[in-house]
């Protein structure tokens, strides 16, 4: 709290050198993603891929990047997390044309208070913040591991979460007792106004559970660092879909407490390039203020452990139906 009055986090990229490497930032056309891309550009990667929902917004981000940093090798790739087919198309294209992949920052997020279904039939923020982000990460996993093998390097996958996951003291009993936890969370029947009020922290809890479960399924000898990061309360477009009194309250709180998007982006960059001497210390961890922090008591509890296992199993099952290649990735690269 009151992070606005704290000194800015360190700029770890001052010491980083990403020459020859490829960095991919999801949700890079604005806010945290764009500011992180600017910092990555300063490390002179061979390729910097901006994964954006819109070609026009992506190109605008490339132009801003060039003006701010002089970097001229940024690429715009289109992906819409509210459409599973778009994520699959993105991953298929990367399989064909992507090549090397050293750093992925899965940053896209959606904050809403009202139920709205995607074309795939899921509540929008649950799909964007959790399921589609998980699909994105799993499908890019082979490219990162192939990079590690070919170039003898240690790729990193950074999943942007939030300290708001601490607000979830336990899953609603209706969800916890449901035979299909995620299906219940994403259903119109469950997404009442009361339940949607707590939707964002729930989706960010899902991000933490996914990253921890993924890390647990990665063999210890596999050269890949997976972690989650809390950028803090920042000025961004995250709440652009929230209106009325709640929007006014968030705006006032932002004036008083929020960090700039640039300040928050430093934490994303640190997760991707920090701790160079002992990178394994970041494996599977939750990171904020450029240091490892303990996740919530719920996540560490017995019930939280059960929820994590169920969340993983259901996510893999759901996404394998969406994209059969997910099952192949899990079978080939991840331990049971």
Automatic annotation (TrEMBL):
Signal sequence, renumbered to the chain: none
Q: Which InterPro entries match?
A: NAD(P)-bd_dom_sf, SDR_fam
Q: Which GO terms describe its molecular function?
A: oxidoreductase activity
Q: Which UniProt keywords apply?
A: Oxidoreductase
Q: Which Gene3D superfamilies match?
A: NAD(P)-binding Rossmann-like Domain
> Which SUPFAM superfamilies does the UniProt record give?
NAD(P)-binding Rossmann-fold domains
Query: What is the protein's name according to its record?
Result: NAD(P)-binding protein
Q: What species is given as this protein's source? A: Mycena alexandri
């Amino acid at each position: 709290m009151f992070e606005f009055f704290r000194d800015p986090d360190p700029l770890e990229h001052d010491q980083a050198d990403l020459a020859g490497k490829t960095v991919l930032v999801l949700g890079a056309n604005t806010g945290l993603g764009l500011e992180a891309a600017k910092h990555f550009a300063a490390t002179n990667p061979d390729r910097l891929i901006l994964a954006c929902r819109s070609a026009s917004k992506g190109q605008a981000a490339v132009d801003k990047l060039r003006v701010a940093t002089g970097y001229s090798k940024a690429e715009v790739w289109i992906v819409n997390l509210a459409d599973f087919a778009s994520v699959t198309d993105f991953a298929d294209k990367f399989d064909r044309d992507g090549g090397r992949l050293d750093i992925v920052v899965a940053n896209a997020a959606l904050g809403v208070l009202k139920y709205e279904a995607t074309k795939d039939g899921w509540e929008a923020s649950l799909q964007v913040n959790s399921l589609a982000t998980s699909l994105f990460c799993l499908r890019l996993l082979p490219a990162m591991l192939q990079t590690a093998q070919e170039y003898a390097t240690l790729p990193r996958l950074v999943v942007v979460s939030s300290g708001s996951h601490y607000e979830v003291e336990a899953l609603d009993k209706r969800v916890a007792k449901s035979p299909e936890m995620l299906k219940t969370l994403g259903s119109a029947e469950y997404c009442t106004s009361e339940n949607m009020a707590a939707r964002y922290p729930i989706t960010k809890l899902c991000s933490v559970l996914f990253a921890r479960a993924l890390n647990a399924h990665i063999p210890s000898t596999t050269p890949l660092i997976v972690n989650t990061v809390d950028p803090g309360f920042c000025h961004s477009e995250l709440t652009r879909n929230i209106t009325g009194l709640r929007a006014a309250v968030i705006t006032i709180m932002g004036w008083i407490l929020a960090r700039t998007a640039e300040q928050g982006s430093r934490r994303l960059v640190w997760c991707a390039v920090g701790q160079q001497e002992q990178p394994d210390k970041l494996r599977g961890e939750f990171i904020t203020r450029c240091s490892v922090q303990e996740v919530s008591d719920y996540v560490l509890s017995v019930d939280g452990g059960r929820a994590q296992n169920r969340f993983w199993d259901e996510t893999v099952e759901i996404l394998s139906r969406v994209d059969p290649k997910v099952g192949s990735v899990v079978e080939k690269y991840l331990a049971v």
